[in-house]
Recover the amino acids of this structure.
């Protein structure tokens, strides 16, 4: 199968776990992919653990360390644990149906293995690292976007960089693909370190294929007259049914200007012109008065409409919500994120031919745990992850806290980009709920 030398041999197997002893001076690393040749089969496994030790008694080790006695080259060893994830037999690839045998030879993955594993894809993320070599490219196919993805890693682990790499390629592939990006830290336009890093504004197609929205330039307003009572649940996840009924009554009474009219009347006369229980009126009016006038001015313009039109044309929308209060961030994110996928769904149902012309959409959501936490009210994002696959809408849930992502949603994130995580709880959640993953050296 290969001309390269083996890096070691199998010294034990148990289920999908393989231990092997490695020869001296082998540049293995955690996460590396290895191939094990076992008769007619080749197994692929990922290095998850390593241990080095001596076969000598402590006293002999001490004597050897002092140079008083030499015990030969076989007194020390390094064993490595790897988890099997794929088996190749002839030309067919499948999940392992068995495991390797004692003494089977282990090899570092080669370029040929890379092509067997089909790691390359239209959206290139980086290259496979094997020993000290950089092998061929690793990427995601456009068809895989609606199968949902997740990126997990602590601050500084490279999430923003990976988001930039993927989204830049979605822009390259426009109008076949398009991106809707929620930037919580304001780092994607210009890069995190403005002097040394590049951001989406440095993309050659930025001026024709990207629209930037930010609260600072007033482009992110949602006019009050564009908010129908049906949207209140998106803005106020804790709203109760009596308040919703009152909102509909106000809408029927005042029309599109219902929020403004009710707010003015309540301010001047202490009532809203529609009969309702005082507590319900108070609860609803408190919510409606909490909408800040910068983001929710009295107008009939909504940036959500502009986002929707751009996305349909293949123009990527970068929405910078840094600096906003967290309630406002949630409102802006949920309002715009529900309108776009809903449109894709409606087109699929009502006008299939037009739907086919729509680009494949990837929504990048930072702080994804805030929107997919099982202990918080459900948001549009769990619906997207669970049911929007067939409409060609994909979600990229980016978070340092994967264990706070609702279990059902996590299972739907088929592409997982796993970086270094801080908390043991998150690492356990990832290992227990992920079958296998590969290491990628990013561009
Ligand atoms: N593939 C990479 N190679 C080299 N440096 C990187 C890479 N990815 C990220 N970095 C650097 O690491 C730092 C943190 O990366 P960033 O993407 O902002 O992480 P996060 O969003 O997870 O906090 C940045 O200074 C960035 O330039
Ligand atoms: Mg970041």
């Amino acid at each position: 199968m290969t001309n390269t030398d083996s890096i070691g041999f199998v010294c034990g197997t148990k289920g999908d776990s393989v231990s092997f002893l490695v020869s001296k001076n082998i540049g293995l690393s955690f996460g590396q992919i290895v191939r094990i040749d076992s008769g007619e089969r080749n197994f692929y496994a990922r290095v998850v653990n390593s241990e080095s030790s001596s076969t000598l008694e402590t006293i002999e080790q001490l004597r050897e360390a002092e140079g008083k006695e030499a015990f030969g080259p076989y007194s020390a060893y390094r064993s490595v644990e790897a988890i099997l994830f794929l088996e190749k037999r002839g030309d067919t690839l499948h999940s392992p149906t068995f495991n390797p045998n004692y003494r089977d030879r282990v090899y570092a993955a080669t370029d040929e293995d890379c092509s067997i594993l089909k790691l390359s894809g239209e959206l290139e993320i980086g290259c496979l690292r094997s020993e000290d070599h950089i092998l061929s490219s690793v990427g995601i196919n456009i068809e895989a976007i609606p199968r949902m993805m997740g990126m997990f890693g602590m601050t500084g682990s490279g999430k923003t960089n990976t988001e930039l790499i993927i989204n830049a390629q979605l822009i390259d592939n426009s109008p076949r693909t398009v991106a809707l990006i929620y930037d919580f830290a304001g780092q994607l336009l210009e890069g995190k370190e403005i002097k040394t890093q590049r951001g989406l504004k440095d993309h050659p197609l930025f001026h024709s294929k990207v629209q930037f929205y930010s609260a600072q330039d007033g482009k992110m307003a949602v006019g009050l007259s564009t908010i129908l009572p049906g949207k209140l649940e998106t803005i106020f996840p804790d709203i109760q049914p009596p308040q919703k009924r009152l909102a509909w009554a106000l809408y029927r009474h005042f029309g599109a200007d219902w929020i403004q009219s009710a707010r003015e009347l309540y301010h001047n006369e202490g009532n809203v012109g529609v009969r309702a229980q005082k507590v319900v009126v108070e609860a609803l009016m408190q919510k409606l008065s909490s909408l800040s006038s910068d983001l929710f001015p009295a107008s009939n313009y909504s940036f959500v409409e502009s986002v929707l039109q751009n996305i349909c044309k293949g123009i990527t929308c970068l929405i910078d919500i840094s600096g906003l209060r967290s309630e406002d961030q949630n409102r802006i994110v949920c309002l715009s994120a529900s309108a776009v996928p809903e449109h894709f769904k409606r087109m699929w149902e009502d006008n299939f031919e037009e739907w086919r012309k729509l680009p494949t959409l990837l929504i990048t959501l930072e702080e994804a745990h805030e929107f997919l936490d099982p202990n918080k009210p459900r948001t549009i994002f769990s619906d997207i992850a669970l049911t929007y696959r067939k409409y060609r809408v994909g979600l990229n849930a980016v978070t340092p806290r994967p264990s706070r992502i609702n279990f059902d949603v996590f299972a739907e994130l088929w592409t997982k980009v796993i970086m270094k995580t801080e908390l043991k709880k998150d690492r356990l959640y990832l290992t227990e709920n992920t079958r296998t993953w590969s290491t990628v050296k990013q561009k």
Notes: Confidence is low (pLDDT under 50) at residues 437-441. Residues 141-221+302-442 form a domain with the Rossmann fold fold (CATH 3.40.50.300).
